[in-house]
C-alpha cells in the first residue's frame, strides 16, 4: 500500500474527499515515508514548516471535542487522525539546519511558516492519494483549543486535521468544480 502506483487522474479526478473509511488500522510509519518525499517539494526559502501530530486512538476523544460537530464522528472513526500545524519557530529550525535564509525569514517567520505549511499540506494530500489512500482534510476545528490541549508547550500552531485511511468505495458524489475558462485569465 505504500508504493506510488496511481496516476494523476487517480490522485485528482477519481479520488474524493474521504468522509468515511472501511474498518482497519494504518501503520503510522507511513507518515514518515511520505514526509521523506514531500519535504523536497518547493517551498519559500526551502522551509519545511509543516508539523504532523498523530493523535492515537486512546487520545482521539480529546481531538473529537475540538472539531466541528459534523466532523466529530469522522475523526472518531478514522483509522488515522493527524493534526497539521506549522512551526512558529521556523527561523530557529532553519538556522539549526544551517540555512542562510534563516535570518531573512526571521522578521516574517510566522507568515512564511503558515503559508508554506499549507503548501506542504497539499503535497501531503497528493502523496497519500498517490499511495491509494483516502484523505479527509478539515479546517472546521478549534485551533486554539487543539493548541491548548495538545501543543501548549510547543512552537507548533495547529491549522487543520487530516483523517487518513483506505478509501471507502461508496464515496459520495463529487461536487461540481469551475471550468478552466472561468478561473484562468491572461493579461
TrEMBL record:
Domain of life: Bacteria
Residue spans crossing the bilayer: none
Gene Ontology MF: a single term: oxidoreductase activity
Pfam families xrefs: Nitroreductase
Positions of the Nitroreductase domain: 16-165
Protein name: Nitroreductase domain-containing protein
Amino acid at each position: 500500500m505504500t508504493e506510488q502506483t496511481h496516476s494523476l487522474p487517480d490522485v485528482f479526478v477519481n479520488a474524493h474527499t474521504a468522509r468515511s473509511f472501511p474498518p482497519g488500522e494504518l501503520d503510522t510509519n507511513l507518515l514518515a515515508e511520505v514526509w521523506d518525499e514531500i519535504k523536497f517539494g518547493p517551498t519559500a526559502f526551502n522551509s519545511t514548516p509543516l508539523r504532523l501530530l498523530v493523535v492515537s486512538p486512546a487520545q482521539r476523544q480529546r481531538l473529537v471535542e475540538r472539531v466541528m460537530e459534523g466532523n466529530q464522528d469522522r475523526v472518531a472513526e478514522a483509522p488515522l487522525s493527524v493534526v497539521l500545524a506549522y512551526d512558529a519557530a521556523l527561523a530557529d529550525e532553519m538556522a539549526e539546519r544551517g540555512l542562510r535564509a534563516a535570518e531573512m525569514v526571521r522578521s516574517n517567520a510566522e507568515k512564511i511558516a503558515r503559508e508554506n505549511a499549507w503548501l506542504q499540506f497539499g503535497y501531503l494530500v497528493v502523496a497519500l492519494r498517490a499511495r491509494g489512500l483516502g484523505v479527509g482534510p478539515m479546517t472546521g476545528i478549534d485551533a486554539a483549543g487543539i493548541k491548548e490541549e495538545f501543543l501548549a508547550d510547543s512552537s507548533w500552531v495547529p491549522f487543520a486535521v487530516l483523517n487518513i485511511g483506505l478509501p471507502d468505495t461508496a464515496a459520495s458524489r463529487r461536487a461540481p468544480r469551475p471550468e478552466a475558462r472561468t478561473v484562468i485569465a491572461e493579461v
